[in-house]
Structures are given as structure tokens and as C-alpha cells.
Write a structure and sequence with these properties.
alpha/beta, TIM Barrel
Length: 320
């Protein structure tokens, strides 16, 4: 795999000060039942990095010591971590919102048969990856049969109330472009998703989130191999909009890796660019209690233009 950080380090991206911390995003490990082309984590079935009990306990301790409003669980497939449910239960018992970034097909993996019901019982918000509403496009990006299994998972979630008005169970879908292009306008694409998934499969959902592909890890390496890396960076840089800077996720979020180390965002985590305070090179979540991050500088590099290009892109979709 081609290393992309050396191609991203030199940057003119504007400085970003942190705002009030609202979201703790926790990567529970890089093990996944899928290996997707666009995956910025380079996750897959062969990855062995999984958060252990001690680190999960440190995360819970931090919830008690902070004013975090939302615990955002990601991976890999976060549901495959043995401490996933304990973290959900800990956050919900503290009246915190919980997000599960779910690839849908994991709901049919061995040992996960009751996961959908567990999520519903704890009112966990499901943010589900479905990079297109067309079968051929999804299977080309994520593997043969993934689309059909994803539709089955969405129907299962719908039967539990997810995506249905008045249920209180949010089900957001996530779109990624097929290649080195920016996402189309989120609102118009959401209407297309609703029409096609509803008419063809009887599937309903809450919102569509459009995310730009980041030029790092598996996707970035593919761009390098194809000779498209510099062109994609140029596209992101030329589409930058200053007005998106106020809403980028890294201003109100921190990202924790499977070992408990702290980053400004999940993308910086994959590039091994830790959050920095004073002269300390790397912080563990257990060392962050009592720290006030507001006003601290976010570490930026050239990939940050992926969040500010066009309509903007974040874990919550378009910034507009």
C-alpha cells in the first residue's frame, strides 16, 4: 500500500481552533466483515486490532469526567468488538446519545442475530453505509451480494421501527462517490434514494448523508496507483469554501483509536497524526480528564480539504 501522509503534509489549509467538545468518536478496532475500496480505515476480516476491556473502561471513565453529549462508535465493524454492548449501555445509562456506524451486513454475521433488536431497545442511532441505491454499484464497491444483504438488514431495522416517523429510532444512510469525484447535492440525492428504495424494496430511512472519499489509506493508495492522486487533491483544493470551516466535525469532536490514543478526527487517526496539547506528542484518553481543549489548534494537512470542498463533508453529511 502506498503511504499518503508524505503527499499530504505540506499544506496551506486554514488554521482551525477547537470549539466546545460535544462528541467522543471511538474506533473499536479495524476488524470488519467487509473490505471496501473507499474505506479510509483499511478495515477487513484479516485485521486483528480490537479495543480491549481496559481501554473501553477508560472511555467510560472519560464519559463521567466530561460534558460529552454523544458517543459515536465506529470501526471496522464496531459491533464485532466484545465490549460494544457494554459501551452502549454505559452511555445510555448516562443519558448520552449513541451512534452506531453500521455496515448493515454485519447484522447477519454469526453471533450478531440479536444486534438489531439490541440497538432498538437502547434507542441507538444507526448510521448505515449504503454507497448507492443501485445493486451493481454497491456490489462493485463492497463485494458481491452486499447490496442484497444490506436491503435485508434495512428491512429488519424498519420492522423494529427504525426510519419510521414517530418511532424515535433514527436510521441515516451514507453515500460515498464511486471514485475521485465530489458527492452530488445531498438533498436531491436523498430524494432519489427515498424514491428508489421505497418503490423497489419498501425501505424507509431518516436522512441521507453524503461523504467525500478521503485520499488516505486504501482509497488514497488506489489513487496513487492509478496516477489520480494529485488530480483529486487539486479538485478538493479548488472546491474549498471558507464558510464550511465553522461546521467541520473536528472542531467539536475527538477521535479515539482502539488503543485509547486521542486524535482530532478519524482521518487524522488513520494518518497517525495525534491530537497535540502543549509539547506532549501523544495523549491517551485516560490522560485527557480535566483538559480544556477549546481554543486548541486542530492538526491539519492537505486531506482536510476533503471536508470543506463543495457542500462540505463530515460524519454528519454535508455541512450546508
Amino acid at each position: 500500500m502506498h503511504a499518503t501522509l508524505p503527499l499530504l503534509s505540506e499544506t496551506d489549509f486554514p488554521p482551525l481552533p477547537r470549539a466546545h467538545l460535544q462528541t467522543l468518536q471511538v474506533n473499536l478496532g479495524y476488524r470488519c466483515n467487509q473490505s471496501c475500496l473507499h474505506c479510509h480505515v483499511n478495515a477487513g476480516p484479516g485485521r486483528t486490532e480490537v479495543m480491549g476491556r481496559a481501554t473501553a473502561s477508560a472511555v467510560i471513565d472519560f464519559l463521567d469526567a466530561s460534558s460529552i453529549e454523544t458517543l459515536d462508535l465506529t470501526g471496522g465493524a464496531p459491533e464485532l468488538n466484545p465490549h460494544f454492548r457494554a459501551l452502549v449501555e454505559a452511555a445510555r445509562s448516562r443519558d448520552l446519545g449513541v451512534i452506531d456506524r453500521c455496515n448493515l451486513t454485519v447484522l447477519f454475521e454469526e453471533g450478531q442475530q440479536d444486534t438489531a433488536r439490541f440497538l432498538a431497545e437502547h434507542a441507538v442511532k444507526v448510521v448505515a453505509s449504503l454507497p448507492c441505491y443501485l445493486e451493481d454499484n454497491v456490489d462493485a464497491q463492497r463485494g458481491d451480494g452486499v447490496f442484497g444483504t444490506s436491503i435485508a438488514a434495512l428491512r429488519l431495522l424498519n420492522t423494529l421501527g427504525y426510519g419510521r416517523a414517530g418511532s424515535g429510532l433514527e436510521l441515516d444512510l451514507v453515500y460515498n462517490p464511486q471514485g475521485a469525484t465530489l458527492p452530488p447535492p445531498q438533498q436531491a440525492l436523498e430524494a432519489d434514494y427515498r424514491r428508489h428504495l421505497g418503490d423497489e424494496y419498501g425501505v424507509v430511512f431518516s436522512r441521507l448523508l453524503t461523504l467525500a472519499n478521503m485520499p488516505i489509506m486504501r482509497f488514497g493508495s488506489t489513487l496513487v496507483s492509478r496516477g489520480e492522486f494529485n488530480d483529486y487533491l487539486r479538485l478538493l483544493r479548488e472546491a474549498h469554501r471558507d464558510e464550511n470551516l465553522a461546521a467541520v466535525m473536528c472542531r467539536s469532536l475527538i477521535s479515539i483509536d482502539w488503543q485509547g490514543y486521542v486524535y482530532d478526527c478519524d482521518f487524522n487517526q488513520m494518518l497517525d497524526l495525534p491530537l497535540q496539547i502543549d509539547e506532549r506528542p501523544r495523549l491517551h484518553i485516560s490522560e485527557l480528564r480535566g483538559e480544556n481543549l477549546e481554543g486548541c489548534r486542530v492538526r491539519v494537512a492537505q486531506h482536510c480539504y476533503g471536508c470543506t470542498a463543495g457542500q462540505g463533508s463530515s460524519c454528519g453529511g454535508a455541512l450546508e
